[in-house]
TrEMBL record:
<dbReference type="InterPro" id="IPR032854">
    <property type="entry name" value="ALKBH3"/>
</dbReference>
<keyword id="KW-0234">DNA repair</keyword>
<dbReference type="InterPro" id="IPR037151">
    <property type="entry name" value="AlkB-like_sf"/>
</dbReference>
<keyword id="KW-0227">DNA damage</keyword>
<protein>
    <submittedName>
        <fullName>Alkylated DNA repair dioxygenase AlkB</fullName>
    </submittedName>
</protein>
<feature type="domain" description="Fe2OG dioxygenase">
    <location>
        <begin position="102"/>
        <end position="199"/>
    </location>
</feature>
<dbReference type="GO" id="GO:0016705">
    <property type="term" value="F:oxidoreductase activity, acting on paired donors, with incorporation or reduction of molecular oxygen"/>
</dbReference>
<dbReference type="GO" id="GO:0032451">
    <property type="term" value="F:demethylase activity"/>
</dbReference>
<keyword id="KW-0460">Magnesium</keyword>
<keyword id="KW-0479">Metal-binding</keyword>
<keyword id="KW-0408">Iron</keyword>
<dbReference type="InterPro" id="IPR005123">
    <property type="entry name" value="Oxoglu/Fe-dep_dioxygenase_dom"/>
</dbReference>
<dbReference type="GO" id="GO:0046872">
    <property type="term" value="F:metal ion binding"/>
</dbReference>
<keyword id="KW-0560">Oxidoreductase</keyword>
<dbReference type="GO" id="GO:0006307">
    <property type="term" value="P:DNA alkylation repair"/>
</dbReference>
<dbReference type="GO" id="GO:0051213">
    <property type="term" value="F:dioxygenase activity"/>
</dbReference>
<dbReference type="InterPro" id="IPR027450">
    <property type="entry name" value="AlkB-like"/>
</dbReference>
Length: 201
């Protein structure tokens, strides 16, 4: 197990992909304001999926924004994007300048407290551009984020801080799973924005 705290601008993975972390991407005062604006200004809804033939509604809330209001399917359900808000466009520009990448959509997650998390998975939907970069911005409660190699099961974890930026690049989704484990001691909400490159827009 590799544990990283405030390492930045170097690859945190030992092989098969690139993972970069910038802890102070957005200054704390600005991050505090953005957190409140996102909490109140985003059209949050419970996520839905079909798993093993059963309709599941998650505890966490989600929202999806993009350049055009298009739809795509995953986990047996259809998602339709909302048009960009001015705040999300401002954040997208910041992320694009820092990452030197372009993004055409953003999936947002709201975890109300540490009882909500995300199981092991890869962001490898066929509608995403192959090996494209995913940029993840975190606001609110700090949470542990874990990676596990699909073959070797080697693990890497880091603490995602308020106002931080995480970049998943290259072949990482092909070789690594990631998860947000539950943390029952965490009582505050966390908002996560993942800027993505869909090939359907």
């Amino acid at each position: 197990m590799h544990l990283f705290h405030r390492t930045e601008s170097e690859n945190l993975l030992p092989y098969d992909g690139v993972l970069l972390y910038i802890p102070d991407f957005i200054p704390r005062v600005e991050a505090d304001q953005l957190f409140l604006s996102l909490l109140d200004g985003i059209e949050w809804k419970k996520d839905e999926a079909i798993l093993y033939g059963k309709h599941i509604t998650t505890k966490r809330s989600v929202a999806w924004y993009a350049e055009k209001g298009f739809s795509y399917r995953y986990s047996g359900t259809t998602k339709t994007a909302l048009p960009w808000s001015p705040l999300l466009l401002e954040l997208k520009t910041k992320v694009e300048l820092a990452s030197k990448e372009k993004f055409n959509s953003c999936l947002l997650n709201l975890y109300h407290d540490g009882s909500e998390g995300m199981a092991w998975h890869s962001d490898d939907e066929t509608s995403l551009l192959p090996n494209s970069t995913i940029a993840s911005v975190s606001f609110g409660a700090e949470r542990i984020f874990r990676y596990k190699h699909k073959k070797t099961e080697e693990k890497v974890e880091l603490q995602l801080e308020h106002g931080s930026l995480l970049l998943m690049k290259d072949v990482i989704q092909r070789h690594w799973l990631h998860s947000l484990p539950k943390a029952m001691k965490v009582k505050r909400p966390r908002i996560n924005l993942t800027f993505r490159q869909f090939g359907l827009i």
